[in-house]
Each structure stands twice: as structure tokens, then as C-alpha cells.
Design goal:
The complex is a heterotrimer. Chain A is built from 17 helices and 24 strands. Chain A is of the alpha+beta class. In chain A, α12 runs parallel beside α16 and α15 crosses α16. Classes of the chains: A alpha+beta, B alpha+beta, C mainly alpha. The structure holds FE2/S2 (inorganic) cluster (FES) (2 copies).
């Protein structure tokens, strides 16, 4: 099954250059997508690592085309966006395109689908590949007919030319025609001629999902498929002392109980039987628990007390001051990804090959991890991505992939499906890490920021496979793999320190990343990584500084910016919101503004919003939010809107409610009762998204742009409404309530 | 053996009587609409209609259902011919991952059968048992209103 | 004759008797004042007033679903019709912004608003009259420093003659005997504080004491249990039907935390009460528990159920599937048992600790109470998620359980689990509860 596309030597480009994207995007060693090597071929996007055109695009004799991407659909609409890109450049109608997503047996290796890189990496590759394929087909038509290439036009899958010349792609294509390496530059379609790109094309996957057509790995059903469940330990590192599984093995419908060290699972004919057997096993298992968790009410202190590895990530001017106008610590608890559908995977072992259907964000890294875990050659393991519920980072997807593989190996020749239970997803997913940010800043006499010092404490945000020790089952096995050393994602993308360098112009500034090699709770990547808290801290501080110097917060931000695209989104958001001349709100109302450029490298996003707080209950409602976003060349404006709206709603939930709960040994927030998230009553009353279109500029992802600015804007609005600055997330009702009980508290706008 | 009317068809199922309807639908009847989200009645991913009422199928054992009428997402329309509520959700592009949406659609169906013209608060109140993590809520609310409009237009036309 | 007709006739008779007291009935309007500045009050007095307002449960009645706190508009169904709570924020036009302390005190103690109109006893001035001057002033300070909200309460929906407020004077003459709190020297300060709050601001008797046919509390049967919003307010003290007798500690824990391991979780109309008490001063809640415990307790089994802390080893690991393994009931058992095993046991036998776990139903007062009312309410409607707060969630079974199913389940619970004789006329109770089953959950403003 092995079909790995290896890297090739550099190919000198000869194609005509009309439009080209920046080619050397990867100046740094490691990114969250895991493939961020220095550019090898100087080719656009992920063509650089997979340069053969037919690795990306196949044209069939019936004039249809198949597009291969190493990225995964996670509910972000990537399938539709990539098809739009391909259709536009291939000049083929969307309906004649098929997309194959991440599959170690068929598609390019594009690492993880993460960090808002998909359109940027895969979209760029596919766009260029499609344009080059189109030119090759035109060239072939020219070769066959003798017509000049510049006389030929490709449209709707047909090349036409003078004298009624008409050759369809299917007629033109031959097996070896597209088996060539890509050129560094492509003849890309001018944005003004777009017919599919930059259009709100309806998502290709939605109708099936909404009519009950099998769309998710959870829906996979193979004849003779069995159902498995695992029993997870009660706490981190707990070892299985003993279990007498005889009664479970004797249950009707139970096929096998699998025990390997502390790994415990069961396979049954029916899913419900597997669940009952799992519960029975859980009740019978005796564990030795050793975990010692910190006091959850003193999490920030516990984090700051851990040993650190420090990196100075910014050092300009003389950042020390005798006195600071703002000197505060901001913190967030651990956050759960909280997928609505618990993680699921299907696997089958046949003689010496293992196939796993998974909703992982990285089929290739998971494949590598599983191969090492089972001491199998990589080419004997195939991971195929099938959609799951939205994951927002690394949820249990990879772990359940290992779980199901453990079970499938115990029963070769049978297909096994495992889905985690709700409490397993909640307790065992790798959380978005708890973090602390300390800020010290001072203003000059001119009302400009004179100095800025920022420090970040965070564990790793990147504990994904590759190494097998990242997987729970690998740690539980009798011959366990130890957890790998934690990864400190370096700047400029960063991990915990993502967005820790303000985009503002600062004459004197210093930022330090205190990386925590130890982990209090299991953690890994969750949407926007450290960006959410860093932006929360920076933008809260910008607001306080504006207030201290009696400047409008929006004007204050603009004064400190040189980046024109940053200014444009801020001005757009403020104008569309009606920031200037905003009416005075009744008591309990407040306005807030937040801005960031995600990672300082990707989409720019500004959010203005209005809240109302019930002064007695402390309940906060976002009355309306207006966002402006610049994602470069837009592929699908409705897709961008959907992502930004979703980001605002999800960040509202993080900001107002969320935090993982635990006692001194176990995670206790094991369901939606213990880990409440936003329900409809708290959905903002209105959200307005404005896209600042940038035709022809590089694609930038939208999935993580809104979270930081939204959290900050809510905090600033709470400050506006209550007169109090809250530094510790979440800004829940209990925190807001007592302050509002005080008599004569400042009212909004006064 | 239990007899159910599933999406208008009489079905005889052999799962044990204590099996929650969710697993009967998914495993025995091979219907994908109802999803497992929590198994606890907390998220609504598994919502189906029983005799027109929205219920959590994850907590509804088969033994309660002899002779009763079950409607799932598949009963509202097909890929080729989506029902009015499904069509409204598609028109509003009201999905991100879409995992929660089957439940949303079923509860919307029940809401609109009871109250054809719900206002914003009524929609929010009715959908309160349903969770969405992707943050698709604004579109879901729009889709419910869209569905209400198309259903009442259809009712008007057949008058 | 319908109940309503009887009540109305009786009412007219009573009012006739009371008409001689028309002089008594007439109350003057008190002069409006300019709304006081919120900064004019002493902060500690405001804070104390906030505590008293929590004990008084003011916000529960004076807040409409989804509305702003204290802005009124909550519909309160009574046997006589629907009364809407009023806006008690200091908005001058729609609230109490123009009320002087004197007007506020008169309303609390005599049930007469600033304009001189008699207030319906849904506003429990028969309890509030006990409130001391100092406390009255603090409550006033607290309310007058709230955000003024413009909100007009809907007009009450009451039939003639009950909609004529003057007839309330007759009612008062018969049933309302205002008194101020007097310390009982035979008891200590804590008991007296507890009694002052329980009998006064907390107005526990408003729900837990039965009412006569004219809606007045039957003083001779204090705490013998009442009914509110379709729920039983269980008898307190010696008459309590709780399987395990309430102790002072248990009462204190229940009132503060909203749950108690041997009794369960506060639900229905009691839920907002405990949510308020959770924020009230601990020593006041403790005093209330002390006084309530002095009302006596049933001589019940002194079952000692060990309380486990979530840390205790040996307890079923929560993250390893805390839903208990259930053995399928043997064929031929009562159908109710099969329903219980399949639909209820996964939470109620899970051993997950309260308040998020399901209570062991053998301990639930709902099963041993004289009517199945509360159990039906809970099974039909469930316990909706509390928006944004960690809190238990229980699904309602109105859609999945038929009346016959419900009756079998309840019979099993009552007879097999609680060990009591079956409730009489269960099918009728089931049908009535089904009819009253709450409409879809509406967005609530509680916390
Ligand atoms: S799966 Fe049934 S409510 Fe969550
Ligand atoms: S669309 Fe993903 S959970 Fe709702």
C-alpha cells in the first residue's frame, strides 16, 4: 500500500511568470503543521515537498478530475475551498471535480491540518498545480494541432482554438503527461477573471451531512464490523493492578477482552454490548493511582512555580522603567476542545498490514507513530482520514486511532470501530494548556507607550504524534513508550508565546517565553494556542493604557500601528460597528474592542462588541459583535464568514464560562454538566462580519483569527460596564457579580 | 422483537429491549442521522422525534417504544430531495462540522410543528437542549426562521 | 360549581363581611420623591441589604424569564388567576424610584403600594411584616442602588371581583395580622436569628404551609406542606417524609449548597431559593438551619450512609466510565423495574457524587411523599442545563414515556425502592401532570 511521495531534486523553473506567490515561506525549522522545513524546491505551498503534478491532480478520460490534498476536512470547509481553487485554475466546472483528502496511501504528505495553514499550504499547491496542468493540456493541444499556445483557450474542460479546434481534457490527457515536476511559477488566473474563486460557493459536504448520508468516521459501517470500547484509567499514570474479566468475557455478544499492561478494552458484536461490557470492566478494574494535581484554585501560582526554559523573543530599546502604568498578570485555565462527537476510529489488521480510518489532523504522523508502536514497517500501515466532529486542535482523534489499532491487532481479519465515551473525551483529551501572561507597561508624556515588558508561562502546545509516546495506549501498554520530550514551538509562529509580541510600534520592549517542560495536565494544540491569552492580555492592557491617558481605545491603537492592513481592519470594524458616536448605554452595558494579526503572520482581525451585564446575577450577554477580517485573497467569502462567526461564538464560550476542573488526583469535568459551554441563551444577539478583500494577495487562514480579539473585546466591555479589570479567565458570572453589588459603582460611559 | 414505525415504515427490530434507541437506529437500522454525543441527555446530538415529540434517543430504551412512531433526519428528506427544514439549513449554510446539526434539525422540526412562527427567544428557548461546539448558532437561528418562512409559504399555497 | 366559582362566592361573602371596614380599607397615597442618588447610600448598608434580598428570594419573583433582574413581569399563576410581579428597580416611572423609605416600609409591612393600592398576598407581606426597621432600611438602600430598568409589568389577569383591589382589604381583615418580630428569651441568639429570617424575609411558610380556600396560610398547620407551581413543598420538621431524618447539619448543607448526599438536589421552585442562599451570609443560613431543625424531626431510621469525597480511593473512577454497569433485569420482573434499569439506572446507580450525579432514589423524598407530584414533574420535564454554570442536567421523559409507562415506573419506585404502599389513583395524577407538563424550556435569567 506504500505510496509515499519522496522529495525530488531541485528543478529549475522555465515557465512563464505572470503571477506568483512568495515562494520561501518556510524560513523556520518547525511549525505546528509539522512539515515546515526550509524550502527545498523553492516551489509554491506544499508543492515544495511534493513536486509531482500528478500527486495532486489526475485528469480522467471522461473530462473529470480528481484532486488530492494531504489536508483534512474538519468542518472548516476546506474541501469546498480547495475544489474552488482547483476548478478556477483548471477551468473545469466544480461538479466534475472530486477531492481526495489525507490518506497515507494516496495523497501528498502535508503534515498536520493545523494552524490555519490549509488554504495557505495546500490551496497554494493545488492552485499552482492546477494552473500548470491547464497549461500542459493547452501545450499538448498546441503540439497536436500546431496551433500556437496563445491562440488556445481552456474553458469548461475543453481547449478551443481557431478554426473550430476543440479538444477535451480527456482527449488530451495521457498517462505520463502529468507525471512531471512542478515549476516554481505558474500562469495564475487574474483575480478579476475569477468565476469560482472569491465566490460564496455552497459547501459540497453540507447536503449529505444534513440528510443523513454517511459522512463521518462515526458513520462507517463495514460488513462484519465489530464494536470496541476501552476502559481508561481513573487518573493520569494510574496502573491497572488487577482485573478478573471472566464475567465480561462470558457476556453474550462479547468477542474478546483485550488487556495489555494497563490498556484495557473489549470487542463485541454490537455497540451497546461493547458499552455495557466496558462499564462492567470499569467496575471490576482495580487501579493504583499516583497522580498529584495542583490545587485548581491556585493554578496560576502552580504554573509559575514550575521550572522554566527561557527564551527572549523580543528585545528592543531599553524596556525597563522605574514605574509601570499597567503591571498585571493575566491567566487562563486549561480548556477542553469539547468536540460534540467523541473521537472515533475504525481499523483492520490483515496479515501484516494495518489500515486505520481516522479523523486525525495528521494521517502521516499518526501512521508513523502506529508503525513504531507496533514495530511495523511504515509502508504496512495506512491511515485514511474520514471526517469526525469538529476538533479545534488535537482532541482524542489520535488516541482513539491507537486504541482501535490495539483492538484490531488482537483480532486480525475483522474490522473494529471504537468511539470514546463522553467522559473519556472530556477527561483524556489533551487540553488547551493553562497559562499565565505578565505585562508591565508605561506611557510617555506624549500619551504613547514608552515601554512594554511581556512574560509568558506555558507548557507545550504541541504534543502530537509522531512519537508513539504521545498516544495514551502506547503509555498504557505492558512495554510502554514514555511520553516524548515536550516541544517548544519556536517563533515566529510560536506556541505558548504565539502572538506574545505586540504588533504595535514600541520603542522599548522585551518579551520572554518561560517554557514549562513539565505538564500539570495533559495538553496539546487547541485553536490559536497561546494567541488567545496573549491577545487577551495585550488588548486588555491597550485598553487600560488608553483609559489612563484619556484616549479613545480605537484611536490609541491606530496611533501605535504602522501596518496598513492592521489599520484597515480596525477602521473597518470601528466604522461598521458605529464606534465613534456610539450611544451611551443603560447601566450594565459596555463596549469593547480587540484586535490582532494571528501569529503576526496571518489574518488580521478586529472585533468590536457591545455587552450587557445583569448587575445582580453577573450574567453577561454579547448584544452585538462586528468583526472585520483580512485573509488575503478570499477563496470563499461565506466560508470565511462562517469561520469568523464560529470563532466569535466559541471564544465567547471560552471567555465567559470555561475551565477544566480537577481535584488533587482526577479530572472532574467529565461531561457537559461539569464543563458547561455556551448554549443558545448566551449566543450573541447579532454578529456582523466584514471582509477586507485583498485580491491577488496570498491566502491566509481564517479559523483562528477571531478568538483572541473576541476574548479581549469582551474583557474590555466588562471593564467598560463595571469599572473593573478582570485578569483571570473565565469572566464568569460569579466573578462579575460581587463587584456589581457595590453601591455607587461607576456606570457605563461615566 | 419490537415493532416500530420508523420514518413511516413498520420495522421489526431484534435488539435487546434495554438497548437505547440510538444504537438500534445506528447499528440495526443503519441510519446515520442520530449521533452519539454524550449518552447522557446533555447535548442533543441524538435527538429524534417520537410521536412528534423531540427526545434524546441515547436515553430512550427500546422497551418504551413498542408500536410507536419514530422520525429521524432520514425521514425528513433525502440528499436528492431534502425536506423544507433541511433545505433551509442548506440554504443558510448552517453547518461547520455538521455533527450537531441533525439534532438541531429534528428539534426545529418539532418546534415548527408546534409553533409555526417562532420569534428569536422562542427559537433560542427551544434549542437550549442542543449543543454546538463549532459556533454555528447564528446560522442555525437564521435557518430556523428560513424554514418557518418556507413552511408557512407552502401551507399558504396549499390553502 | 367549579372550584373557582366556590372561591369567588366565598370571596364575595367575605368581602361583604369586611365592607364595614371600608374605612380601614382606604389607604392614602404617599408623596412621590425624586429617585435618590445611588451614591447617597452607605456601602455597608447596601451590602447588608443585598444579603437580606438574597434571603428574601426577591429576585426570583421579581424577574421575568430572560428579563433583567428585579425588573418584574414574572407571571405567577394562582388558583384565582395570573398575577405579574412588579418592577422593583428604582426607575421613576415603571419601578419604585419615587418611593420613599416610608412607602417601601408600608408595602412590606402592610401590603399597600405607594399610591395606596392594596397588594395581592402573592407578595408575602404577611411574612415581611416581621422585618425590623434596620433591615427595612438596608433593603431599601440595596434596591434603590440597583440599575433603574424601564419595564412595565403586564396587567394582572384576574376575574371580578378579585380584580378589585379594595376587596383585598376584606381579605386582610380576615387573614392578615401584622406583627413585628419579638425575641423569644427562652432561646439563644442563633435560634432567634433563624426564626426571624425563616418566619420573616425568607417566608418559608409561604410554600411549606398549606393554604386555605381563600389562599391564606393555615396557621394551625404551620409547615405541614404546601403546593407551589405544580410542585409539592414538602412538610418540614416532624412531618417531613424524608427517608432519612433531616439534621441541622444536613439542612445547613442543603440550603447552602443546594444538595445534600442523603436527600438529593433542590429542584423546582426550591432551586432558585438555594441559588440565592448560596450567596447569602453563611451564618444566616446556619441560623435558619438551626431554627428549622428545632421544628423537630421524624423518628426515622438512623441509616448511616458513608459520604465519600471525590478523592476517596476505591470509588468508581469517574473518568473510567462512571455510568454504572447494569445487569439486565430477569425476565418476568415488574415492567417498572425494566424501565428503571434501562432509562434511569445509568445515572442514578452510578455512584457519581452529588450534585452532578443522580441521587440514589431510595433516599429521595419525592418517592416517600404523600403525592407523586414532584416525581412526575422531574421525570416528565427533567432538569434543564443551567446556562453556563456547572450543574446537574437531567433529561425529561415526557416525549418518550407514555402515561402507562410512567405509572409502571412510579409504582416500581414507590413500592420497590421506597418500600411504601402504592400512591392512590396514580393514573389520574399522571394524566394531570402530563397536562401541566411545562412548555419548552425558556431562557431563564437565574444566575
Ligand atoms: S447523545 Fe443523547 S443527548 Fe447527547
Ligand atoms: S457544526 Fe460542529 S458542532 Fe455544530
Amino acid at each position: 500500500m506504500r505510496h509515499d511521495i519522496s522529495r525530488r531534486a531541485v528543478l529549475q523553473g522555465t515557465g512563464a511568470l505572470i503571477l506568483s506567490f512568495a515562494l520561501t515561506r518556510r524560513a523556520f525549522a518547525l511549525t505546528e503543521t509539522g512539515v515546515g522545513d526550509t524550502s527545498v524546491h523553492r516551489l509554491p505551498g506544499d508543492l515544495d515537498s511534493t513536486p509531482m503534478l500528478d500527486a495532486w491532480i489526475r485528469i480522467d478520460p471522461d473530462d473529470s478530475a480528481t484532486i488530492f490534498t494531504g489536508k483534512a476536512e474538519l468542518g472548516q470547509g476546506i474541501k469546498t475551498a480547495l475544489l474552488q481553487v482547483a476548478a478556477e485554475e483548471l477551468k473545469l466546472p466544480l461538479t466534475r471535480l472530486t477531492l481526495v483528502t489525507a490518506d497515507t496511501g494516496r495523497t501528498p504528505n502535508e503534515g498536520y491540518t493545523a494552524a490555519s495553514h490549509s488554504v495557505q499550504d495546500s490551496g497554494t499547491a493545488i492552485r499552482n498545480a492546477a494552473a500548470q496542468v491547464r497549461e500542459i493540456l493547452i501545450g499538448e493541444a498546441s503540439r497536436r494541432t500546431g496551433a500556437g499556445a496563445d491562440e488556445l483557450v481552456a474553458r469548461d474542460g475543453v481547449v478551443t482554438g481557431p478554426g473550430g479546434l476543440r479538444l477535451s481534457y480527456g482527449e488530451l490527457v495521457s498517462p505520463q503527461l502529468l507525471h512531471v515536476e512542478a515549476q516554481p511559477t505558474s500562469n495564475l488566473t487574474d483575480p478579476k477573471d475569477f468565476t469560482v474563486m472569491d465566490k460564496p460557493v455552497p459547501r459540497v459536504d453540507i447536503p449529505a451531512k444534513l440528510t443523513g448520508v454517511a459522512s463521518y468516521v462515526q458513520d462507517m459501517r463495514v460488513p462484519g464490523m465489530l464494536h470496541g470500547r476501552v476502559v481508561r484509567p481513573p487518573s493520569y499514570g494510574a496502573r491497572l493492578v488487577s482485573i478478573d474479566a471472566t464475567s465480561v468475557e462470558g457476556m453474550t455478544g462479547v468477542v474478546k477482552v483485550v488487556k495489555d499492561g494497563s490498556f484495557l478494552g473489549v470487542i463485541a458484536e454490537k455497540e451497546w454490548t461493547a458499552i455495557q461490557a466496558m462499564r462492567q470492566l470499569a467496575a471490576l478494574a482495580k487501579w493504583n493511582e499516583t497522580a498529584e494535581l495542583p490545587d485548581e484554585s491556585r493554578l496560576a501560582e502552580a504554573l509559575m512555580a514550575l521550572p522554566t526554559q527561557d527564551t527572549v523573543i523580543l528585545d528592543v530599546g531599553k524596556p525597563d522603567a522605574a514605574q509601570y502604568d499597567v503591571d498585571a498578570s493575566f491567566s487562563r485555565p486549561y480548556l477542553a476542545h469539547g468536540s460534540i462527537g467523541p473521537s472515533c476510529a475504525v481499523a483492520r489488521m490483515d496479515s501484516d498490514t494495518l489500515t486505520v480510518w481516522t479523523h486525525t489532523q495528521g494521517v502521516f504522523p499518526l501512521r508513523n507513530a502506529l508503525a513504531e508502536l507496533f514495530a511495523m514497517p511504515r509502508e504496512n500501515v495506512r491511515c485514511i482520514q474520514v471526517e469526525g466532529a469538529g476538533c479545534y486542535g488535537q482532541n482524542g482523534a489520535d488516541d482513539v486511532g491507537a486504541d482501535v489499532a490495539m483492538l484490531a491487532r488482537a483480532l486480525p481479519g475483522r474490522t473494529v470501530r471504537v468511539q470514546w465515551m463522553r467522559e473519556q473525551e472530556h477527561a483524556w483529551e489533551p487540553f488547551g494548556p493553562g497559562m499565565v501572561v505578565h505585562l508591565q507597561t508605561a506611557l510617555g508624556a506624549d500619551g504613547m507607550i514608552s515601554t512594554w515588558r511581556q512574560e509568558v508561562w506555558s507548557q507545550s502546545h504541541m504534543m502530537r504524534p509522531g512519537p508513539p509516546g504521545t498516544l495514551l495506549a502506547a503509555r498504557e501498554k505492558a512495554d510502554p513508550f514514555p511520553p516524548p520530550p515536550p516541544v517548544d514551538l519556536p517563533m515566529p509562529e510560536g506556541g505558548g508565546d504565539r502572538n506574545a509580541i505586540p504588533l504595535y510600534v514600541l520603542p522599548n520592549a522585551r518579551a520572554v517565553n518561560h517554557f514549562l517542560p513539565e505538564m500539570l495536565l495533559r495538553g496539546s494544540s487547541m485553536r490559536s494556542l497561546g494567541g488567545y491569552l496573549n491577545v487577551f492580555a495585550i488588548e486588555s492592557t491597550m485598553d487600560d493604557l488608553a483609559r489612563l491617558s484619556k484616549q479613545d481605545p480605537v484611536a490609541f491603537r491606530l496611533r501605535h500601528l504602522a501596518d496598513e492592513r492592521a489599520k484597515a481592519v480596525i477602521i473597518t470594524a470601528a466604522e461598521r460597528f458605529g464606534w465613534d458616536g456610539r450611544p451611551k448605554l443603560p447601566a450594565g452595558g459596555g463596549y469593547g474592542f480587540g484586535f490582532a494579526r494571528y501569529k503576526n503572520l496571518e489574518a488580521w482581525c478586529a472585533v468590536a462588541l457591545e455587552i450587557s451585564i445583569d448587575q445582580d446575577t453577573g450574567r453577561t450577554i454579547v448584544e452585538r459583535a462586528t468583526a472585520a477580517v483580512d485573509t488575503g485573497q478570499v477563496v470563499n467569502p461565506d466560508g470565511v464568514r462562517n469561520q469568523i462567526e464560529g470563532g466569535i461564538v466559541q471564544a465567547t464560550s471560552w471567555t465567559l464560562f470555561e475551565g477544566v476542573r480537577f481535584d488533587r488526583r482526577r479530572i472532574t469535568s467529565i461531561d457537559w454538566a461539569a464543563y458547561p459551554i455556551l448554549r443558545f441563551a448566551h449566543v450573541p444577539r447579532a454578529i456582523d462580519v466584514h471582509i477586507v478583500d485583498r485580491p491577488g494577495l496570498p491566502f491566509l487562514g481564517a479559523g483562528e483569527a477571531a478568538q483572541g480579539p473576541t476574548g479581549a473585546a469582551i474583557a474590555n466591555a466588562v471593564r467598560d460596564a463595571t469599572g473593573q479589570r478582570l485578569h483571570a479567565l473565565p469572566l464568569d458570572a460569579a466573578k462579575i457579580r460581587p463587584q456589581n453589588l457595590l453601591a455607587g459603582r461607576p456606570r457605563a460611559g461615566t | 422483537m419490537t415493532h416500530l414505525i420508523v420514518n413511516g415504515e413498520l420495522r421489526t427490530v431484534s435488539s435487546d429491549p434495554d438497548t437505547p434507541l440510538l444504537y438500534v437506529l445506528r447499528d440495526e437500522l443503519e441510519l446515520n442521522g442520530a449521533k452519539f454525543g454524550c449518552g447522557l441527555g446533555q447535548c442533543g446530538a441524538c435527538t429524534v422525534l417520537i410521536d412528534g415529540q423531540p427526545v434524546f434517543s441515547c436515553l430512550t430504551p427500546l422497551l418504551l417504544l413498542e408500536g410507536r412512531e419514530v422520525r429521524t433526519l432520514e425521514g425528513l428528506g433525502t440528499l436528492e430531495n431534502p425536506g423544507p427544514v433541511q433545505a433551509a439549513f442548506i440554504a443558510e449554510q448552517a453547518a461547520q462540522c455538521g455533527y450537531c446539526i441533525a439534532g438541531m434539525i429534528m428539534r426545529t422540526q418539532a418546534l415548527l410543528e408546534r409553533s409555526p412562527n417562532p420569534d428569536d427567544d422562542e427559537i433560542r428557548g427551544a434549542l437550549e437542549p442542543q449543543l454546538c461546539r463549532c459556533g454555528t448558532h447564528m446560522r442555525i437561528i437564521r435557518a430556523v426562521k428560513h424554514a418557518a418562512r418556507s413552511l408557512s409559504a407552502a401551507a399558504e399555497a396549499t390553502k | 360549581m367549579t372550584i373557582k366559582r366556590i372561591v369567588t362566592t366565598a370571596f364575595i361573602l367575605a368581602c361583604g363581611a369586611g365592607s364595614a371596614a371600608l374605612i380601614y380599607a382606604w389607604q392614602p397615597a404617599l408623596p412621590p420623591i425624586a429617585p435618590p442618588s445611588p451614591t447617597g447610600f452607605d456601602a455597608s448598608e447596601v451590602r447588608y441589604g443585598a444579603d437580606l434580598a438574597l434571603i428574601g428570594d426577591c429576585r426570583t419573583c421579581h424577574t421575568a424569564p430572560g428579563g433583567r433582574t428585579f425588573a418584574g413581569g414574572l407571571a405567577m399563576p394562582t388558583p384565582f388567576g395570573t398575577i405579574y410581579s412588579t418592577n422593583i428597580t428604582p426607575d421613576a416611572r415603571t419601578g419604585i424610584g419615587q418611593w420613599s423609605l416610608e412607602a417601601f416600609t408600608r408595602a412590606m409591612r402592610e401590603g399597600v403600594d405607594r399610591e395606596g393600592r392594596h397588594l395581592y398576598p402573592a407578595f408575602p407581606y404577611d411574612h415581611f411584616s416581621l422585618t425590623t426597621d434596620v433591615d427595612m432600611k438596608a433593603l431599601y438602600a440595596f434596591l434603590m442602588t440597583r440599575d433603574p430598568i424601564v419595564a412595565e409589568a403586564p396587567a394582572n389577569d384576574l376575574p371580578f371581583p378579585i380584580n378589585v383591589r379594595l376587596v383585598l382589604a376584606g381579605w386582610k381583615l380576615l387573614f392578615f395580622h401584622p406583627a413585628r418580630y419579638t425575641t423569644d428569651p427562652t432561646h439563644d441568639d442563633i435560634w432567634n436569628r433563624g426564626r426571624y429570617l425563616v418566619e420573616g424575609l425568607a417566608h418559608c411558610g409561604a410554600c411549606h404551609t398549606p393554604r386555605n380556600f381563600m389562599g391564606a396560610e393555615t396557621r394551625s398547620e404551620d409547615y405541614a406542606g404546601g403546593e407551589v407551581e405544580g410542585w409539592s413543598a414538602f412538610p418540614l420538621g416532624r412531618l417531613s417524609p424524608a427517608p432519612i431524618p433531616w439534621t441541622e447539619d444536613a439542612l445547613n448543607h442543603y440550603l447552602r449548597e443546594g444538595w445534600q448526599a442523603h436527600h438529593g438536589v433542590a429542584l423546582g421552585p426550591m432551586r432558585p431559593v438555594v441559588e440565592n442562599l448560596a450567596e447569602a451570609p453563611a451564618q444566616d443560613v446556619a441560623a435558619m438551619a438551626h431554627y428549622l431543625a428545632s421544628l423537630g424531626a421524624t423518628a426515622g431510621p438512623s441509616v448511616q450512609i458513608p459520604t465519600v469525597s471525590p478523592d476517596a480511593s476505591g470509588q468508581r473512577p469517574q473518568s473510567a466510565g462512571w455510568q454504572a454497569a447494569i445487569s439486565t433485569p430477569a425476565a418476568g420482573g415488574p415492567i417498572g423495574r425494566a424501565i428503571f434499569s434501562a432509562a434511569c439506572a445509568s445515572c442514578h446507580l452510578s455512584e457519581r457524587p452529588l450534585p452532578l450525579g443522580g441521587v440514589d432514589l431510595a433516599l429521595s423524598t419525592s418517592l416517600s411523599a404523600s403525592t407523586p407530584q414532584n416525581l412526575l414533574d422531574i421525570v416528565l420535564n427533567g432538569v434543564p442545563a443551567s446556562d453556563g454554570n456547572p450543574a446537574l442536567i437531567m433529561p425529561g421523559f415526557a416525549g418518550s414515556m407514555t402515561n402507562a409507562t410512567l405509572a409502571s415506573l412510579l409504582t416500581f419506585l414507590r413500592v420497590e425502592v421506597a418500600g411504601k404502599s402504592a400512591w392512590p389513583d396514580l393514573p389520574a395524577a399522571v394524566a394531570a401532570a402530563r397536562k401541566a407538563a411545562s412548555p419548552p424550556i425558556h431562557v431563564r435569567a437565574t444566575r
